[in-house]
Design a protein that fits this description.
2% helix, five-stranded antiparallel sheet, mainly beta, 1 helix
Length: 642
């Protein structure tokens, strides 16, 4: 089981690596605030944001439940946060909560949860403790107030804890937690304590779409034959379905909006499915989903924040579940960064912006609104950047999340793509036929948009000198491998070398495919674990030059059936002094740890778990290779000792 966990996690990380960037949009991480005055976004403080939406103008709206009980908005065009509805009285004394239909700060809510907007700009709010669905009138500028009213359900306490299908105030709910609206204006409600999904027509007629009143369970079926357990969030999936965060069943469910047929999208149920496991939907596990959203490509996103233990954002794409942001059971409350380097604390409801490339998350425990941007970030480098005509220049993509590439060179003549590459290759290779300075532009694209990076005057091409010795340079096809791997070395020396001599230390390697140490571009097979230094001496009739790359090639002891899971398991601190620890996405017991020196000699054998400190005091400073195995899976990683 442990091996499966590591393998599936590695696959998931491989799918999502560097695919998105997490930032904090508004709020002070870890600091709650109750100010109802207009604030700059830099100074704004939120209190436990719950529901979140983005309007057509790009304004971000959210609800704040206990103790603020209010509706607020951030307008990027003004850089300010505004209070739009909810009482101004002291929230710490419970004076701000209640039930009042008025305008602006004269209105009162009692734990407003989910929020949605229809095509006319009217807001719909699940007023949790008032057991009603409230309206907030459309936005007409910051100089005008917005009026709160009740769309369906009676004034409390008349409708407390009941389920009645009817129209307007005759309908009854029991702690609604979320709302979503389809293209026809129908409103769907997660009626939490009733354990059902309700449907409301634009005219206010309420019916029960799926689930059975007060009957918590885990049953797929039609209408009242289906059962849910703590519905926390819902979202429109397509023209005929909504998706449901079925929290205590640890599932994502799908409901047909006409027939009420309920099916399971992913998750294994209350007991078998509790935890955190990425991979195929047949094995994936969730821990109390709390929010749900759908992008324009039909991918489903799930937040897990109920008990503050999971704190991750998951993605369901087809039949694959992956973790795209946050880290399971990590103690760090807040951290921005790329994908799983970010940290959340009790992430709740989520929504996409209008263009579908940014996912906004109400990060309740951190009192902030976060953004996950799926648009790629273009970046690249060239090697070499200064060379002669007819020398191969390699462009290497370093973009985040790109799936296609378009390269442009300016001036757009006097060069050719070589070695089977072209302007749409991820890492194209070029040769320039004329001297000059060339600019390079990369457009990186994925399903969510594109991004452009230009480096002006980046590549400088000179004429071949007939009097200068070579300037040695080379590159390897990869710098990390396993025993038995073949690595190709490519000469990139300038000034037209006519001879080459390669030296690789230590000597546990052989030249293959008809090449030797005098070849311009040799192929080398490595036969032992170690860290290898590579030296190229290039010469012509005017002299020689050498390029040495110390500790350039890292060869691990993995066989064909083994995995290098350096993205899943890491060593820290690295560099290290007297000891190191093993950080993994899940605890690993009964580890065998072998430390090899640069010559491939085992210099330390250890055992323990991923929770233990591995003692390496006494080792000389240098580069080592660490191999770890738990008996079912193994992997390796470089360790620097100082």
């Amino acid at each position: 089981m442990k091996k499966n966990l590591l393998l599936l996690t590695a696959l998931a990380l491989g799918l999502s690596s560097k695919a998105q960037v997490v930032t904090t949009v508004v709020g002070s991480p870890g600091t709650a605030g109750f100010n109802i005055l207009t604030e700059t976004v830099a100074n704004a403080q939120l209190t436990s944001p719950f529901g979140v939406l983005v309007d057509p103008q790009g304004r971000i709206w959210w609800t704040e439940a206990d103790p603020s009980h209010r509706i607020r908005v951030y307008d990027p065009s003004t850089g300010s946060v505004y209070h739009r509805s909810g009482n101004a009285l002291d929230p710490m004394n419970g004076q701000s909560m209640g039930y009042v239909n008025q305008s602006g700060n004269q209105s009162k809510f009692d734990e407003p949860n989910g929020i949605a907007m229809n095509g006319s700009g009217t807001f719909f709010i699940a007023d949790f403790n008032n057991h009603v669905i409230r309206n907030l009138s459309s936005f007409n500028g910051y100089g005008s107030t917005q009026a709160a009213s009740t769309f369906v359900g009676p004034p409390p306490p008349a409708g407390f804890g009941d389920l009645v299908d009817a129209t307007g105030s005759a309908a009854r709910f029991d702690h609604p937690t979320d709302v979503c609206i389809d293209a026809s204006g129908n409103i769907y409600v997660a009626d939490n304590y009733n354990e059902v999904i309700r449907k409301i027509t634009p005219g206010g007629t309420v019916t029960t779409l799926a689930g059975l009143k007060g009957n918590a369970g885990d049953v797929d079926g039609t209408g009242t034959a289906a059962q849910f357990n703590n519905i926390t969030a819902i979202a429109i999936y397509d023209a005929n379905h909504i998706v449901v965060a079925d929290s205590w069943n640890n599932k994502v469910r799908k409901v047909h909006t006409t027939t009420g047929v309920v099916t399971t999208v992913a998750g294994l149920g209350t007991n078998a499915g509790f935890g955190h496991e990425d991979g195929n939907i047949s094995v994936a596990k969730f821990r109390y989903p709390t929010g749900i959203a759908v992008d324009n490509n039909g991918n489903i996103y799930v937040s897990e924040g109920w008990d503050g233990q999971s704190n991750v954002i998951r993605k369901i794409s087809g039949t694959t579940v992956s973790t795209i942001a946050g880290k399971y059971q990590d103690a760090t409350a807040h951290q921005d960064g790329n994908d799983t380097a970010s940290r959340f604390y009790k992430p709740w409801h989520m929504t996409f912006n209008n263009t579908g490339n940014i996912l906004y998350v109400a990060d309740r425990g951190n009192h902030v609104i976060r953004a996950i941007d799926f648009t790629p970030v273009a970046d690249f480098f060239a090697s070499p950047t200064s060379t002669n005509v007819n020398v191969t220049v390699k462009l290497t993509d370093q973009s985040n999340g790109a799936t296609s590439w378009s390269w442009a060179i300016s001036p757009n003549s006097n060069f050719n793509y070589v070695n089977g590459t072209n302007a749409n290759s991820e890492n194209p290779e070029l040769q320039f036929t004329q001297t000059g300075s060339y600019s390079v532009t990369l457009t990186a694209t994925n399903a969510y948009g594109n991004n452009v990076k230009t480096r002006n005057g980046y590549i400088n091409i000179s004429a071949i000198s007939t009097n200068d010795p070579p300037v040695a340079e080379f590159v390897a096809s990869k710098t990390n491998g396993t025993v038995g791997d073949i690595i190709n070395f490519t000469d990139q020396s300038t000034n037209t070398p006519s001879s080459w001599t390669w030296t690789i230390v230590p000597s546990s390697h052989s030249y293959v495919n008809g090449t030797d140490n005098k070849s311009q571009n040799p192929n080398v097979q490595f036969t032992a674990v170690g860290v290898y230094t590579v030296i190229l001496q290039a010469g012509n009739t005017n002299g020689t030059d050498s390029e040495a790359k110390a500790n350039y090639i890292n060869i691990g002891p993995l066989g064909v059936q083994q995995l290098n899971l350096s993205d899943v398991v890491s060593l820290y601190p690295n560099p290290s002094t007297g000891s190191f620890r093993i950080q993994s996405l899940a605890p690993i017991a009964n580890l065998n740890v072998v430390v090899y020196d640069a010559q491939g000699k085992a210099v330390r054998t250890l055992s323990g778990s991923s929770q233990d400190a591995m003692e390496i005091s006494g080792l000389e400073s240098g580069v080592y290779h660490v191999r770890l195995s738990d008996g079912t899976a193994s992997f390796s990683q470089k360790l620097i000792v100082r």
